[in-house]
Design brief:
By secondary structure, this protein is mainly α. It contains three helices and no strands. Helix 1 packs antiparallel against helix 2.
C-alpha cells in the first residue's frame, strides 16, 4: 500500500508542478520536465497494481 501511495503521489506532484510552471515546465534541461517524464515509470516500474494492493 505504501508503494502504491508513493508512486501515485509522485505522479500527482509532477502534474501539479507542470501546471504551476506552465510552458516553462516542458523545457528540456529543467528538473520538472524530467520528473514529469519519469513519473509514469514509477508506477510501472514498481510492479502491477494488483501486487501493490496486497
Amino acid at each position: 500500500m505504501a508503494k502504491l501511495f508513493a508512486s501515485e503521489m509522485c505522479g500527482e506532484v509532477a502534474m501539479d508542478a507542470m501546471r504551476i510552471h506552465g510552458g516553462y515546465g516542458y523545457i528540456k534541461g529543467l528538473p520538472i520536465e524530467r520528473f514529469y517524464r519519469e513519473a509514469p515509470l514509477m508506477i510501472i516500474g514498481e510492479g502491477t497494481m494488483k501486487f501493490k494492493n496486497l
